[in-house]
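step 3/5: co-fold with calcium ion
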Amino acid sequence: MAEKTCSVVEKKVIKVAIVEDFKLTRVGLRCALNENEDLNVVAEAEDAIEGLKLIERSHPDVILMDLGLPGMNGIEATIKVKEMFPESKVIALTSHDREEEVIAALSSGASAYCLKDIDPSKLADVVRDVAEGACWIDPMVSQMALNSFPKVENIGFLPNKSQSEGRVPLTEREYEVLKHLVTGKSNTEIAKELIVSVHTAKAHVCSILQKMCVNDRVQAAVKAVKEGMV
Ligand code: CA
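step 4/5: write tokens
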């Protein structure tokens, strides 16, 4: 007869850090997460610089990163976190549902994008899933994120589709970025022109390259001029 095995699998406690400048939100998040036996908030910071220091000290598994932070914003902070602590997973938290922000957050290496009105028990589940390596996008913005991917006919999956048929469906904002790209502007210059962050400009450029089925910005510029897109 086989030895009796313990049926209760001991749950690993997931260490969580919170980077959020609004105190009430920070406290609310900590209380909501600490109600779960398997989640433990080990660090709380009110800005990105302090957050990075605490992350280095406490080695959290998951970081809840507010995107609207004073000074270094949450997207820049996420890029830094992923550079410095690639094992840590980041959940981007925001009260906004802007397409640019969703794309920029996901491009920065965040594993999840949550709106702040998420149900606390759902957030706990997202923390668990993300700690396991999953990605999650709030259903309130997931359609928007999916729309940012190129349509199948534009990435060459459909046979016999004429390359020149119709225009690539860029968003209005992407057309603006494309116009600057054609004039040879860098992401930093485009960001300045459009008064957005460099990461947002970069996210737009990536999306444009995907939608236009080209490998780099030079090819995009050539194609845009050739096809009269700008
Ligand atoms: Ca904030």
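step 5/5: annotate
The CA atoms of residues 182 and 221 lie 5 Å apart.
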